[in-house]
Specification:
15% of the residues lie in helices and 36% in strands. The strands form 22 sheets. Strands 45, 46, 47, 49, 50 and 51 form a six-stranded antiparallel β-sheet that branches. The protein contains 16 helices and 90 strands.
């Protein structure tokens, strides 16, 4: 029985449902623990946590249990081993209950092996059957049993998150009682009552309960049991034999129990565990220790919570890893007791230790400090105070003593962040703590809107030792807010905050509203759960019609919709729930465009009454540990319950009404149900609302009420005894929203904050009830598009809107929200430009004396580095006397602010030493004064040379150049200043390394310094010169590094569509206080009538009104409050001409033409006029002109414009004589114009007209069978002539007929038109085949014909090709010996007379004689040499001439070839005798042979 019921497929192992063998085993198990009084403690512990009635009954039966167990213990004192075991058990339980532990957390190993989930055979018992049956079993069903060895972290799954109170549901349904402890009215228990108990369990469906059991009856019962046990002790030594009656009774009981168990098991399979989650709570907290070195120390703690918390040990906020230091730490978790053992402590183990218990409901920590003392006494123990959570969380002993001062800084901080629903995000910063102490870690805590952020499946925290991180795994709008990280170190802490904005996810349906947020359960009971949510800020462009609520049972993935029609009120009671099961919920908004995305799911909530849930949470270790005692008496007569009290309407909306009441005082001892009735106001016609499903909880939600109608309500109670009287009726209730939509806020006031944010404040809505918060929206002035500034309603009357565009002007509006809905929008605020708030300027610097007189001095200084976001309006100068090195009091030098960076101070004392300081001022106020200047003596300057130039500054810094500017000296000397010299040296160079940049003095007060070395730092100075010489140098400008910074941009000239010329500059490195300053030749151009300057954000533009020769010069733009950022542009005469030409082109633009107007003939003989422009806009218009008259689209003309390709077309079906003339296309695209003209007159037009007509006829021809390729000839490899043509658009019925000289040529086979080719083969083509050939195609669609003339030149051309093919077919010449001589021959495919044959011998044409002859026999061409002689030796060439080209074949008749041929000739000559010609014989003398002819 060591496993809890939910680990055994929800089988209920309660004492009332055990079979006999199992009960016997349990009795034997209890006897082995008989001396421990464990169950007495168990009953007492349980009773202390029960209700009053429950407590009285438990105490009575605890006394009875104690008495019986004490007598059993007295009989077993002889067994020493059993006594020792029981002592160990008793001490363990005593320890556990003294510290608030439960039975399930103290199940000792000594007895765990003696329990088995399977029934065992009963052992011999010393008690009789009666006593065994009458003994209380007092068996506990543990919910949380078993502990694991230390596991770090928390497994976030549904199984571990949701542990429901299934035990309570099983107990109530199986026992059908409300208290769970049964008692008998009788004062003594007899054998007969025991039998009745068994019978009552098997027969009765409900067990009666005695509500009042006095202590006296309990004592008498205890006495009776004790006496009966003593009298029958000796009888138990013998084996008990069952009587027939007992066997029958037990058999019946067994059958009844089996059936009950089957029903219970089926119930548990459907049962879902209840939502009884609660956060961890330390029952026993760890205690601080002070130990000596080399000793071991153990820290103990015990923690409760559901789901069972996971406990992690930390040392100075760092998790302890037992694997990193094997043997150093031992972490155990046994029976609910968590232990950290530190072996062989040394001084480094002096630290703060934290036990962190965590589950899904939260995290709780308990702290203890361990101090390791050295034997030399380095540590003063008196300064250490052992405490836990009462001390500062980062308390520890440091080398600097207790409560040392720490400085905490944040680096690499997270800024205002923007995310989108469903994305991940991480916030983090590096924490720097000084002094840094080893083994001493800070406490890191994150907050959202002031509330601590606890780790969950949505958000995780991490501390790496120097960097703190907060990670969102799946952003939702609920995560939006102000996030703060607080780092605590001892008594000191620092914090940093930034806002996180979460934008809506993209809608799946365009125009659908955004998802609601903060879905929570407001009220839960057996019959319904009220869900609330917050309305979204974005409605998708149309008003939200309402909301759909979805539910899902925990442990499943099946979502079901709870309402058929949308509800507008942001609260809704969900009914139709199964009691005891847990659910999660989500909400979706709907408008006319569709349903939006669902919200984040709510936390699980169980359909249970809060009172039952609270009672179960107070006893998480076991749902029920009482005893069941059933009597044979009839159950108490039922009592009809009385009327409920305090009936009221707690909530009323247009969709539902919620009633609440208190149970009746007179209710009997069984559960009651409720029936709700309603009637129309002014009538007594009561109707029952819940006719089919009685209400189990004292709250109920009514639906389907007519909006605007008035009702009264009342409630009745019922039980098995009947239905009670109704309660008092409620007041008349009108169905409708009692909560009004709030009024819109007022007085929306924006104010500047930073260059990307604005602070918006407003007056809160008046008389607003249950206000959830406010939504703020912003809009760029003139855009008409509103964007939400927050997606989570904010409370209060002030909000900072981030993510705005710098330099852009915005307006704002606000609306309030509560459960009834969103208010109307407030009035729009005034427009405000987004830029940093104005501050006072920083101090000026580099005060110097520019000129000195007897009673006055002229001072100069440099303007402040930071202007505070506004223009400096002036300076104030203070001075004081310095006598013998002692300064006096400060005096004001000027009452009115000075606008220049120089000022003459009068009324000074001659030869007196003075010090000065200067303060700058803007509209925000007077800034901090500058540092005190050096001492200057007031005396007359009599030097002839000029004073130093002042206000030296650099700009336009590049990698090889920069621009230096300055102002003339105040003291010009005896004569006017004639020029300036500029000197330069490297910043680290000595003073003797100054070098001049200009050999001749320059008159300008600026100079572009060229030839700098990239990456080198320089300083510069300026000296003025007059006729007396060169004066003092100015203050140094720099140091400045010669480099082109990333992102540096130049001034760009632009000519717009109207021909307006402007110079444009953009700077990405501006500060919130930076401004653009334009100048011409480095003189400010603010008041120039020829220029307009416009600056917005980080861009500026200077526009020329009428660019001319007087505008030549260098135009520069400097950016203030930066380190010399600027750029310039030179406009000289050549550039002026280019810009004016470009301006003229833009003023009178033309449409660029890619292809001029052209004409082409299409397939059907149509005529296409077309042209192509470079590009055409949507506003381009085209006018079509013919002979100076506009033509329009109609039957004759078809026009088309392709604006993507720029092609303009006009189509005409046919060209007629009146269409001869000039065609023009005129284009107009805004201001741009263009045209193209085509002239079609004379021969050009006639040729085009003829071509068009031909193409039209061709198209008509091709509608029937026609020739795709006309008749042509081809000479085949066999030297035949093939006439062929290609046909198209033919069908099965199409016929083809061949003709020669108008006479039909008969064809043996019908043509199958394979591949569309028709052929006629003429073999051995010769002159007789010359003529005119014609082929005709025809069918029912028409006919087409093709002719081929093979006469005259055409025939000659064909014969030439035939002869050429024949010549190419000739074989190589061969030698043949005959009786007459030697023959040379070659074969051709066939021979025609047009092929000319010529023979040559050694390059000389052969003259034919009777001895040398040439001829053709069939396909053989030969040369016969009779009676050959040595003179006939040599090379013989046969040339075949086809009419154009000769084709030669050669053979060498000499050497061995001649000798062999001649020898063979001699042999044949001597062999044959002369025969007469008529006999057809051969005559070697005459050489005659029948059929031979001489050449």
């Amino acid at each position: 029985m060591s496993l809890p019921f939910y680990q055994k497929l929800h089988q209920h192992y309660d004492s009332s449902y055990r079979n006999r063998d199992l009960r016997t085993t349990m009795s034997q198990y209890q006897q082995e623990k008989k001396s421990s009084a464990i169950y007495t403690h168990g009953s007492t512990a349980y009773s202390s946590r029960s209700s009053a009635a429950h407590r009285q009954e438990s105490e009575a039966f605890s006394l009875a249990s104690a008495a019986s167990y004490q007598q059993q213990a007295s009989r077993a004192t002889a067994s020493t081993h059993a006594f020792a075991a029981s002592r160990k058990t008793a001490s363990a339980y005593d320890y556990g209950y003294s510290h608030g532990l439960t039975d399930s957390s103290l199940m000792l190993e000594d007895y765990s092996s003696k329990l088995s989930p399977q029934a065992k055979r009963a052992k011999k018992s010393l008690l009789s059957g009666e006593e065994k049956e009458n003994l209380p079993s007092d068996y506990m069903v543990p919910i949380f049993s078993g502990r694991q060895v230390h596991v770090s972290g928390l497994t976030d799954t549904e199984e571990e998150r949701i542990k429901e109170a299934a035990a309570y549901i099983a107990q109530r349904n199986l026992l059908a009682s409300e208290e769970g402890i049964m008692a008998s009215k009788q004062s003594a228990v007899s054998k007969q009552s025991a039998v009745s108990k068994q019978s009552a369990v098997s027969k009765q469906s409900t067990v009666s309960k005695q509500s009042t059991v006095s202590k006296q009856s309990a004592v008498s019962k205890q006495s009776a049991v004790s006496k009966q046990s003593a009298s029958t002790l000796h009888q138990e030594e013998a084996f008990e034999k069952k009587s027939r009656k007992v066997a029958i009774r037990e058999k019946a009981e067994h059958l009844s129990l089996t059936k009950t168990l089957e029903e219970t098991e089926a119930f548990h399979r459907k049962l879902n565990e209840d939502h009884l989650l609660h956060a961890p709570e330390f029952v026993i907290k760890p205690r601080s220790h002070t130990v000596w070195e080399k000793e071991n120390v153990k820290l103990h703690c015990s923690v409760s919570g559901w789901p069972e918390p996971r406990l992690t040990w930390y040392k100075n906020q760092v998790p302890i890893n037992v694997h990193a230091n094997p043997g150093k730490y031992i972490i155990e978790s046994r029976y609910g007791m968590h232990t950290l053992e530190i072996n062989a402590c040394d001084f480094e183990d002096t630290a703060q230790y934290r036990a962190s218990a965590m589950n899904v409901k939260g995290e709780l920590s308990a702290y203890a400090s361990v101090v390791v003392k050295r034997y030399k006494g380095e540590f003063d123990e008196t300064r250490f105070h052992a405490g836990v959570s009462t001390l500062p969380l980062s308390f520890a002993v440091t080398p600097y003593g207790y409560a040392s001062k720490f400085e905490i800084h944040f680096d690499d901080k997270f800024d205002v962040s923007f995310g989108r629903e469903g994305e991940t995000m991480s916030l983090g910063c590096r924490v720097v703590i000084t002094p840094e102490i080893k083994h001493f870690q800070p406490e890191i805590q994150w907050y959202r809107n002031g509330a601590p952020v606890s780790p969950s499946k949505w958000v995780q925290t991490h501390w790496s030792g120097d960097r703190a991180t907060l990670t969102f795994s799946h952003l939702n709008k609920e995560d939006e807010g102000l996030y703060t990280i607080r780092v605590r170190m001892g008594d000191y802490y620092e914090q940093y905050s930034a806002y996180v904005f979460v934008r809506d996810a993209d809608a799946e349906i365009e125009g659908a509203p955004a998802s609601p947020l903060d879905v929570v359960s407001l009220d839960a009971n057996k019959d319904y759960i009220i869900i609330s949510w917050k309305q979204p800020a974005v409605d998708g462009g149309s008003p939200i019609l309402g909301y759909f609520i979805d539910k899902c049972e925990v442990g499943t993935d099946s979502w079901s919709q709870c309402n058929d029609t949308p509800v507008k009120f942001a609260r809704f009671p969900v009914t139709g729930l199964i009691e005891g099961r847990s659910y999660i919920f989500r909400v979706r908004a709907v408008n006319k465009n569709g349903i939006g995305l669902p919200s984040r799911v709510s936390e699980p909530v169980a359909a249970l009454d809060p009172a039952e849930k609270a009672r179960l949470k107070s006893r998480p270790s076991a749902p029920w540990t009482g005893q069941i005692i059933v009597t044979e008496e009839e159950p108490t007569e039922g009592i009809v319950p009385g009327p409920p009290t305090d009936l009221s309407v707690t909530e009323a909306t247009r969709s539902y009404v919620v009633l609440s009441w208190k149970p009746p005082r007179q209710r009997g001892h069984e559960g009651i149900l409720y029936f709700v009735e309603k009637c129309d106001a002014g009538t007594e016609n009561w109707q029952r609302v819940n006719t089919e499903l009685p209400v189990k909880s004292p709250r109920f939600a009514l639906f389907d009420l007519a909006e605007g109608k008035s009702y009264r309500f009342r409630v009745r109670c019922s039980n098995s005894a009947g239905v009670g009287e109704p309660s008092e009726a409620t007041e008349v209730t009108v169905v409708g929203d009692k909560l009004d939509i709030p009024k819109p806020p007022g007085k929306i006031i924006p104010s500047r904050n930073t260059d990307t944010s604005v602070i918006v404040s407003w007056e809160e809505s008046k008389d607003a009830k249950e206000l959830v918060g406010y939504y703020i929206e912003s809009s760029v002035v003139g855009s008409g598009k509103w964007e939400p500034c927050n997606n989570n309603p904010v409370k209060g009357s002030r909000f900072t809107c981030h993510g705005l565009a710098t330099g852009q002007s915005y307006i704002f509006r606000v609306r309030a929200v509560n459960a009834a809905g969103l208010s109307e929008y407030s009035q729009d605020s005034e427009a405000i430009e987004v830029k940093a708030a104005i501050a006072a300027p920083s101090p000026p610097c580099d005060i110097t004396c520019l000129e000195s007189f007897r009673d006055s001095m002229v001072l100069g200084w440099k303007q402040p580095d930071k202007t505070g976001g506004a223009e400096i309006t002036g300076y104030y100068v203070n001075y004081r006397e310095v006598i013998d090195g002692v300064p006096g009091r400060w005096r004001e030098a000027n009452i009115k602010a000075v606008s220049d960076e120089a000022y003459k101070i009068s009324n000074l004392k001659e030869n007196m030493v003075y010090q000065f300081q200067v303060a700058a001022m803007n509209i925000a106020g007077l800034g901090v004064p500058s540092a005190v200047s050096e001492c200057f003596k007031c005396e007359e300057w009599t030097i002839a040379v000029p004073g130093p130039p002042h206000n030296v500054k650099y700009s336009e810094v590049r990698k090889t150049s920069l621009v230096l500017q300055w102002k003339p000296p105040v003291h010009s000397g005896r004569t006017p200043v004639t020029g300036y010299f500029v000197d330069l040296k490297e910043a680290n160079a000595k003073d003797d390394q100054w070098r001049g940049l200009n050999k001749a003095a320059i008159k300008n007060t600026y100079l572009r310094v060229q030839g700098l070395q990239e990456g080198v730092s320089y300083v510069l100075r300026v000296r003025a010169i007059n006729q007396a010489g060169v004066g003092k140098p100015s203050d140094l400008a720099g140091p400045v590094v010669a480099e082109t910074r990333p992102g540096t941009k130049e001034v760009v000239v632009n000519v717009d569509d109207d021909g307006v010329i402007s110079l444009n500059f953009e700077c990405d490195q501006m500060t919130p206080n930076s401004q653009f300053n334009w100048s011409k030749d480095y003189i400010p151009t603010e008041d120039s009538p020829r220029l307009d300057i416009e600056s917005k954000g980080n861009k500026t533009k200077m526009t020329f009104k009428d660019l001319g020769m007087e505008d030549l010069g260098i135009y520069s733009c400097d950016v203030t409050d930066t380190d010399g950022i600027g750029s310039s542009y030179l406009i000289d005469e050549e550039e002026l001409k280019r810009l004016l030409a470009l301006s003229q082109e833009h003023k009178f633009p033309t449409v660029p033409v890619k292809s001029e107007l052209a004409v082409e003939i299409l397939e059907k003989g149509q005529v296409r006029f077309w042209m192509q422009a470079e590009k055409l806009s949507a506003n381009t218009k085209v006018t079509y002109i013919f002979n100076d008259k506009e033509i329009f689209e109609g039957p004759k003309y078809k026009m088309h414009i392709d604006r993507n390709t720029g092609i303009i077309e006009m189509f005409m079906e046919k060209l007629q004589d009146e269409d001869e003339g000039t065609y023009t296309f005129q284009l107009q695209d805004g201001k741009a114009t263009g045209h193209s003209t085509l002239v079609l007159i004379g021969d050009v037009y006639k040729k085009l007209q003829k071509e068009a007509e031909f193409q039209r006829q061709e198209w008509i021809r091709k509608q029937g069978p026609h020739f795709a390729e006309y008749l042509s000839w081809e000479v085949t490899g066999e030297c035949n002539v093939l006439l062929k043509c290609k046909v198209a658009n033919i069908k099965k019925e199409t016929h083809i007929v061949w003709y020669k000289d108008e006479r039909e040529i008969s064809v043996d086979e019908k043509h199958d038109f394979k591949d569309g080719i028709c052929t006629l083969l003429i073999t051995e083509f010769s002159k007789k085949d010359a003529g005119i050939y014609e082929v005709i195609l025809k069918d029912d669609r028409g006919k087409d014909k093709s002719r081929l003339k093979l006469v005259d030149e055409a025939f000659k051309e064909l014969m030439t090709e035939v002869c050429k093919t024949i010549a190419l077919s000739a074989t190589d010449l061969k030698i043949q010996s005959t009786a007459e001589g030697i023959r040379l021959y070659s074969f051709v495919t066939y021979y025609v007379d047009d092929l000319k044959v010529n023979w040559s011998h050694n390059g000389t044409p052969i003259k034919y004689t009777d001895r040398v002859k040439s001829g053709v026999t069939g396909e053989q061409i030969w040369l016969q040499i009779n009676e050959p002689t040595p003179n006939d030796k040599g090379k013989y060439i046969m040339e075949l001439f086809d009419g154009k080209t000769g084709h030669q074949k050669m053979v060498d008749l000499s050497g061995q070839a001649y000798d062999e041929a001649f020898a063979e000739f001699q042999r044949l000559k001597n062999t044959y005798s002369c025969r007469s010609c008529p006999s057809g014989g051969w005559s070697p003398r005459c050489g005659h042979h029948p059929g031979r002819q001489g050449a």
